[in-house]
């Protein structure tokens, strides 16, 4: 594991996103709130938050971080038959939270898949990517190309 002991403690933020593309029937079920497993958005939000908090347990060599905030938002994109997921993570520490944001977005997307697979096994998880990173020695970073999401 990388030694971050000499790094300055700074406020750090990372935002990652993912897209879950599904059939119109599966998306209609999500919108209507009548999924047999329950509230897709609430469950995916909780899964994303829990995943971000447990990233060090899931990804080898990640530092255990005290997160000050994890926010997972889900948005229906009806024209694309998709759900866009954003995971925003904050901490004050010696290392960044990019992996926590990516893990949160990924697990929220997998949860949407799990809850909707009975209607559509062909669901795709696409474009999982880091969008913004702030803080630390490298400063602020934004994805250069326009988001596909």
Provide an overview of this structure.
By secondary structure, this protein is α+β, with helices and mostly antiparallel strands. 31% of the residues lie in helices and 32% in strands. It is built from four helices and five strands. It has helices spanning 24-32, 40-53, 55-58, 98-116, and strands spanning 10-21, 67-77, 82-93, 124-134, 141-142. Strands 2-3-1-4-5 form a five-stranded antiparallel β-sheet, covered by helices on one side. A hairpin with a 4-residue loop joins strand 2 (67-77) and strand 3.
Offer a concise description of the structure:
The protein is an alpha+beta fold and 149 residues long. 31% of the residues lie in helices and 32% in strands.
Class by SSE composition: alpha+beta
Strand order across the largest sheet: 2-3-1-4-5
Q: Mean of the pLDDT scores?
A: 91
- Main β sheet profile: 5 strands, antiparallel
Low-pLDDT stretches are none
Share of residues in strands: 25-35%
DSSP strand count: 5
Number of helix segments? 4
Shape: elongated
Helix and strand pattern: EHHHEEHEE
End-to-end Cα distance? 33 Å
Oligomeric state of this protein: single chain
Please state the CA-atom Rg, rounded to the nearest Å. 16 Å
Helical percent range? 25-40%
